[in-house]
Amino acid sequence: MRTGGVDFRRAECSWADASAVVVVSEPLREAVRPESVDLDALAAEVAAVREDVRAPAS
Fold first, then answer.
1. Which of 19, 23, 28, 51 could make a disulfide contact with 32, Cβ separation 3.0–4.6 Å?
2. Do the beta carbons of residue 15 and residue 30 sit within 8 Å?
3. Structural contact between residues 49 and 24, judged by C-beta atoms closer than 8 angstroms
4. Do the Cβ atoms of 53 and 24 come closer than 8 Å?
5. Percent helix, strand and coil across the chain, each to the nearest 5
6. How far apart are alpha carbons 49 and 24 in whole angstroms?
7. For the chain, how big is the Rg over CA atoms in Å?
8. Residue 12 neighbours by CB under 8 Å, 6+ apart
9. What CA–CA distance (Å, rounded) separates 16 from 45?
10. CB neighbours of residue 45 within 10 Å
11. Which residues contact 25 (CB under 8 A, 6 or more apart)?
């Protein structure tokens, strides 16, 4: 992402369902190469967060 002429890197996952629209984002330091990010670990963290915010089905 580029804002005000400055590049920002982040690993991001989002979802939407009947009860929420959620974005989980982790900023990355400049020295971190995007291809070195452990996306499986981020996905596991996001899955845990999703369970915490999910509303019961009616």
1. 28
2. no
3. yes
4. no
5. 30, 35, 35
6. 9
7. 14
8. 23, 24, 25, 26
9. 16
10. 13
11. 10, 11, 12
Rounded distance between C-alpha atoms, residue 36 and residue 20, angstroms:
30
Note the pTM of the prediction, 2 decimals.
Answer: 0.57
Summarised one tens digit per residue, pLDDT across range 4-54 is 776 778 888 888 887 778 888 888 777 777 788 888 888 888 888 887 777
DSSP state of 36: G
Non-local (6+) Cβ contacts of 27 within 8 A are 8, 9, 10
- Measure the CA–CA gap between 50 and 13, rounded to whole angstroms: 11
